[in-house]
Design brief:
The complex is a heterodimer of chains A (141) and B (247). Chain A is an all-beta fold. Chain A has no helices and nine strands. About 2% of the residues of chain B have low confidence. The chains are: A mainly beta (141), B mainly beta (247). At the A-B interface, β2, β3, β5, β6 and β7 of A face β3, β5, β8, β11 and β13 of B.
């Protein structure tokens, strides 16, 4: 079938002859599809916490996942979101902290770590972090 | 043209009055249409995939090293005339390329943004379009090119909607703010330009003596996308802001 489905062009562009960059939507091409959006919160009870946040998706394959975080310790304060920024310096700049993600065919995982450079480490007790995880139907690596 | 096209609201919301974010689909806003996609395993630096568009396109690439079980989507992947990598090791990639210029300047209208709540979803809602040759009534999700409604797990299914895109310069030692006008923190991407290529912006740090020094960062507030530049030189960047709220 060579001509089927729906397409919508940009305003002012003839939809019958519009090229792909001039289409807002075409059903002949896939569009990034969100499967689920999950919000999570974690508060450190001590500096010995092992953080293992799990988000179950049960897709049966490893999907593409986007992950964002919000919390204290960023370079600009707490009212920020850094989509790809998992690494932060501690207030004394002597260590860095990081959030990492992993994904498999059933779950996405969020975990926390800290690597000391020259100071005495960092105690996150009482810090609250918020996470949002976008899990797509599209396959991840 | 004031009123044209098609829109689908989330179940429980009046499609005529709901906010932009409560729409599962709207023809008033561009969508991230995927033109090229695939998976590939690369060994060492080199090309992941060429596109031949004649401009640098928007891309998303998920990369997983053989020896590191983590979805490191922020790994150093670049896009220019092709998507490529410059790091060592064996890495598995899943790439998605939109036939959209990464530098395209666009700002969507804000029809209604005051309510960022997501509401609930019904099991059978909206519209769906299957791949060519597949019965849309019985097609599985993997055989659908497009749909809106609810997934079998009861979660929202929707297309990401593009709110704003463009380019700007980040002067060294400053923060550069791009006003988005949404009133909440939206999902976004930013790409830093290096020579003729772009790579995903994220927090980058370096250890200098006994200190950890943040060199660059991209983040969102309720009013702005902000690029922080402490790299010691100016750089250009491109950005793509979606309608979807973050946390």
């Amino acid at each position: 079938m060579t001509d089927w489905g729906i397409k919508i062009s940009k305003p002012g562009v003839e939809v019958g002859t519009a090229s792909l960059p001039n289409l807002y939507f075409t059903s002949q091409k896939p569009i990034l599809k969100t499967y689920m959006v999950s919000s999570s919160t974690y508060t450190f009870e001590s500096d010995l916490d092992t953080v293992d946040i799990e988000i179950t998706h049960n897709l049966g394959y490893t999907p593409m996942v986007w992950f964002s975080i919000s919390g204290p310790g960023t370079i600009t304060g707490s009212d920020t979101i850094e989509l790809w920024g998992y690494y932060y310096s501690t207030p004394d700049n002597k260590a860095f902290r990081y959030w990492t993600t992993d994904t498999d065919s059933t779950k996405a995982y969020i975990s926390y770590g800290e690597s000391n450079v020259s100071g005495a480490g960092f105690n996150p007790t009482g810090e609250t972090w918020n996470f949002k995880t976008y899990i797509f139907y599209e396959q991840g690596a | 043209m004031g009123d044209w096209g098609m829109k689908v609201s989330r179940a429980g919301y009046d499609v005529n009055t709901c906010s932009d974010n409560q729409l599962l689909f709207s023809s008033s806003f561009p969508n991230p249409v995927i033109d090229l996609q695939g998976t590939i395993r690369t060994e060492g630096a080199g090309t992941i995939v060429a596109h031949n568009y004649g401009y640098v396109p928007v891309y998303f690439c998920s990369s997983r090293p053989d020896t590191f079980a983590s979805d490191v989507t922020y790994k150093e992947v670049f896009v220019g005339t092709s998507i490529s990598r410059n790091n060592s090791g064996n890495i598995n990639h899943a790439y998605y390329i939109m036939q959209r210029d990464i530098t395209e300047v666009y700002t969507a209208s804000n029809i209604a943004t005051t309510d960022a709540s997501s509401g609930t979803y019904s099991a059978d809602w909206g519209f769906k379009v299957s791949e060519d040759g597949v019965n849309v009534g019985t097609a599985g999700v993997a055989d659908l090119v497009s749909f809106s409604g609810a997934s079998s797990a009861g979660h929202a299914i929707r297309h990401q909607t593009i709110h704003k895109s463009g380019t700007a310069s980040a002067a060294n030692g400053t923060t550069t703010s791009i006003a988005h006008g949404l009133g909440y923190k939206p999902l976004f991407f930013a790409w830093k330009k290096q020579a003729s290529e772009y790579t995903t912006s994220r927090v980058r740090y370096e250890v200098e003596g006994e200190d950890v020094v943040i060199k660059e960062s991209a983040y969102c507030t309720n009013t702005n996308l902000v690029i922080y530049n402490n790299r010691g030189e100016d750089f250009e960047f491109a950005y793509l802001i979606f309608k979807d709220p973050l946390i």
